[in-house]
Amino acid sequence: MNRAPPALDPLPRGLSESNQFMGSRNDTPEISFDDPGRHGMAQRVTWISVVVNIFLTGAQVVAGIMAHSQGLIADGLHSLSDLVCDFLVLFAAHHSKDPADERHPYGHARIETAASFALGAILAVTGAGIIWGAGVKLQNLDNLPPVQQLALWTAILALVAKEGLFRYMLHVGERLRSPMLIANAWHARSDAASSLVVALGIVGNLIGYNFADSVAAVIVGFMIVRMGVVFAWDAVLELIDTGLSVEEVDSIRQVIIDTPGVRNLHELRTRRMAHRSLVDAHVCVDARISVSEGHRIAEMTRKRILDSHPSVSDVLVHVDVEDDLDHDSQLQSMPDRSELMTELAPLLSDLPEPRRVILHYLNGRIEAELLLPRQSLGDLTAVNKAEREIARQLAEYPLISSLSINYGRQIFPVKGH
After folding, report:
1. Helix axes 179-206, 110-138, angle to 10 degrees
2. CA 79, CA 52: separation in Å to the nearest integer?
3. Nearest-10 crossing angle of helices 179-206, 38-66
4. pTM passes above 0.70
C-alpha cells in the first residue's frame, strides 16, 4: 500500500448555487494549494466583508426603524447574519491551515466543512425568524405606519454594495478554490437579491400597497432559509463521505487504467475533504512480478493521479493480483508461509535446503517455486529420483496447484554500483 503525504487544502465541494459559475475559474489564474499567500488572501477578503457588513447592518436597521420598513429591518438582520458568518470564516481559515498531527493525520481542512454547516444553520434560523416576524406584521396591516423614502434609498445602497462584495468574494474564492469563501460569496449574492426584493416591496408600499413591504420581508426570509439549507446539506454530504461526481471518478479511473503495468481496476473509492479529495484504488498487476515492481506500479499510479488531478490530495493504492472481489476472503483461509513449509517438509525432505521459496496465492490455490543451490546438480541421479517422488506425492496436497524446482546459477554483481 502506498499513501501520498496528507495535504491540508482539499477540492471544491459542489455548491449547487455556484456550479454554473465554476467554469469561470478557468479564466482566472488559480492559487496553488501550497501557496503561502493563500491564508492572507482569505483573511483579507473576509475582513473586507466584515467592514461592509458592519456598515450595512447599522445603516439598514437604523433606516428601517426610522422609515418604518419591516423589509429593510429584515435585510439588516440578514447582513448581521453575514457578519457572524464572516467571523466563522475567519476562525475556520485560521485553524484549517494547521498542519497534520497525531490526532488529525489528514490535517484540519474539515474545519471549513464544519464552518460551512454552521453558516447554513445560521442562515436557516435567521430566515425563519424573519418569516415569523413579517407574518405577524401582515396580520395587523391597518396599524402599520407608512414607509418613508429613506428606506428605498438605503435598500438601493445595500443592493449595490452587496452585489459588488459578491463579485469580489467569488473571484477570490474561485482563485483559491475554497468552498467556504465561495459559500460566503453566494451568501452575499443572496443578500443582494434580498435587497432587490426589499427595494421592490418598499416601492410597492410607497405607491399605496401597504402589504408589499411585509411580503418582501417574507420573500427575503424564504430566500435566506433556502440558501442556508443548501449550504448545510452540502456540508453534510461531505461529512458522510459522499463520493466525487461520475465525471471526476471516470477521469481518475481512466488515468489508473492507462498506467503501464496496471492490468485492471476493480475497486475505486473517492471522498471529499473541504476543497480537495481523497482516492482509494485497488489495481490488478501481473501475479508473477516481484513485490518491488508491484510497488513501483503503485507509486506510478499514485503519481499520475496527483499530477493529472491537482484537486486530489491523497491517494491510497492497493495492489491485487486477481480481479476477484472474493479473493481476499479466500486468502484469509489459506495457510501462511510458515504453516505451508511445515506441511511440505516431508515432501521436500530428500532435496537440499532451498535458497529461496516463492509462493503465489492464485485462484484459491498455491503455486510454489523452489530455488535450489547449484551444487545440488552434482548428484543428478539423486535429484531426479527426488523429483519423481515429489511428483508422485503431490496429489496428496490438493492446495498446491503446481511446484517448480529451479537450480540457481551464479550471480555476477555489476562492479562500481
Report:
1. 10
2. 9
3. 20
4. no
